[in-house]
Amino acid sequence: MEAPTRQEFLFHSAAGKAAFYVLVTLATGYFLWQVWQRVRLWRQGKPIDWKPDYVGSVVRYVLGQRKVKTSRPNSGAPMHLLIFYGFLTLFIGTTLLAINQYSPWKFHHGPYYIGYEFVLDVMGVALLVGLAWALLRRWLFKPRTVVSSPADYGTIVLLLLLTITGFVLEGMRMSADPKPFDTSAPIGYFVSQMIPGITAGPYLAMWWFHTALVFLFIAIVPRLRLRHIAYAILSTSGSNPDAKMGQIPTLSMKEVEETGQIGAKHAKDYSRWHLMSLDACMECGRCTEVCPANAVGKVLDPRKVVQAIRAAEASGAEVASAVSEEALWACTTCNACVEACPVLIRHVDLIVGARQHLVAEGKLSGTAATMLRQVGSTGSAWGTPASEREKWMEGLEIPLARDLIARGEVFDVLLWVGCAGVADRGASKTTKAFASLLNKAGISFACLGKEESCTGDPARRAGDEFTFQAFAEANVATFEQYGVKRIVTACPHCFNTIKNEYPVFGGNYEVMHHSQMLAELVERGKLIAPSFRDGSVVLHDPCYLARINNEADAPRIALGRPSNLNDNNTPVGRYLAQSMEEGNVLAEPEHFAQKTLCCGAGGGRMWMEEEANQRPSDRRAKELVATGAQKIAVACPFCRIMLDTSVGKVDGGENVELVDIVELVKAAND
After folding, report:
1. What is the pTM (predicted TM-score) of this model?
2. Separation CA 69–CA 337 (nearest Å)
């Protein structure tokens, strides 16, 4: 019995084979030449200073499609997965066929061949379904953030033609040269039964038509959005495995001295990896869909930022002009775009890099510029002088690090108050309540008092990199002076900066957000969690805690382990596995945990003017009030300030109380 296999170049003459090799060489050569033009542009950027995890990143983000699979249900993720895995399987199948044809290893026969034919037929159908879905989605059900051009429709049609003609060609081969094992490819076999008696002429005509489509695809794909198939592999595999979402790349003074400028004036001022990642963008719109600034009508469009910088890379235009200064200043650095991007583009790095140049050129004015001056002159973003940093302690038993060390005593935890915890009335209330609970739980802690200064976070994200570095180095020196090993703070921005950015300056500590400390104390029985089982409380997750630092468990555990979460968002943390009977019930908003909505305060926006109808906090307040909760629990002083101005303006919000989670825990323990 004949072993299952098939003849390559069926019915082809020597001249036909030669023509094929010439054409495939030309098409592939043109493809590589176009790619090389992009590589030359990438190489203009700064060399990367990290060691990529090539294999791990490709497995997680390319083969595993981790970011795509965690997209929201209406994002088109299932469609994308059908196209990706279908296309990938056919590409691998073609590669294996070439290896068998042109290498000493001949394996394309027997059981392997049977399985090969079946798998390629099934995945070809998956590709066909995905492409049809994509065409209908763009034509009839196009989401707001999806952009389409004639080239996009043409690409989908070309891929549909390639897939359909591939099945037809397979059926014609089986009809012209039938074998008893043809049923291993069910789609091709079905087609062969529809077109019996095919001869060499029609078969060769279809073969060349299909092959011409393949050559066309190879030649033009670098000019299509579909180029991201190749570039995304390079971008994801070359990404920095140690770069955390809330970490801004550190700018060195040596680099400034060598280049004579600060920040990104031109595209070449970014790293080579950042430039490469621009080519990986398919303009899917996921970044724009989740952008809080774009959602309230601001000009910032993360997708357009990427495309504008990519265009500036080729033209030599300045980044700020290509993107627009208004768009650059609109960013809250909430990293929703970064979290959503399937190919790991770090939009915030791009935006802050451009801001650094604008600040260096003196192009930041108004209240944001005032904030930077206050940070530099007083060590506080609110302009609070050091002499007033201990006022909130009056009448309270708050130990100071300098006094304890002077007496030869030690402390376990440094309570980092933060600028807001001193200057803002609501945040100061949180600070006092938290200090009271630490005392009640018997935690050995101390504060720095007048020796504490801004972490530098507002300055860094507004673009003043070297002011940030000065404060980082000074604070690390203070921590070392007092032997600090463990730090807790109620501010997610301070938490993120000390935890993720101070290690670059030698500051390695165990850093906790106050919700994590509260959760730990509740679980150890040192504190009692509040009790509410009627959904009367809704929690607003801060971006810099839930999304950027992947911490959504702690505030919920501190509030009594509520677990009424549904499947509309990406599950985050162990509390999802608990039954509702085990704890309180929170009135969760539509967007929570990693998918939380930004209040609009990050990235220095706290100190920038807002149009009355373009406040992200108004949008978030509406969603929180819509849950019907009587109290909105926050875990960030920035969020509290922003929501405090918005909740009262929402219908039904006038009777909703805004509290920090620590206040609810304190009330349960009084």
Report:
1. 0.90
2. 16
| Pairwise CA distance, residues 372 & 651, whole Å | 36
Is residue 103's pLDDT more than 60? yes
- From 659, 393, 645, select the one nearest 536 (Cα to Cα): 659
Q: How far apart are alpha carbons 162 and 272 in whole angstroms?
A: 34
Residue 433 has pLDDT above 60, yes or no: yes
What is residue 490's DSSP assignment? S
Q: Which DSSP state fits 44?
A: T
Strand ranges, E, within 373-464: 413-416, 445-446
Question: What single DSSP character describes residue 591?
Answer: S
Pairing of strands 510-513, 486-489: parallel
Task: State pLDDT tens for residues 313-360.
Answer: 999 999 999 999 999 999 999 999 999 998 999 999 999 999 999 999
What's 546's DSSP letter? I
CA distance linking residue 140 with residue 667, whole number of Å: 54
pLDDT at 71: 54
> Where residue 159 falls among pLDDT bands split at 50, 70, 90?
very high
Cα separation, 486 vs 429, in Å, equals: 23
Phi then psi for 170, rounded to 5 degrees?
-60, -45
* Residue 458, φ and ψ in degrees, nearest 5: -60, -40
Number of Cα atoms under 13 Å in the Cβ half of residue 303: 18
| Nearest-5° Cα angle at 629, 626 to 633 | 110
| 581 closest CA partner among 594, 556, 597, 564 | 564
Tell me the C-alpha distance between 271 and 540, whole Å.
35
Q: Calculate the CA 358 to chain-centre distance.
A: 25
Q: What pLDDT does 283 receive?
A: 87
Q: In whole angstroms, what is the distance from residue 196 CA to residue 58 CA?
A: 44
Residue 571 confidence (pLDDT) above 50: no
User: Any bridge partners for residue 413, and if so which?
Assistant: 445
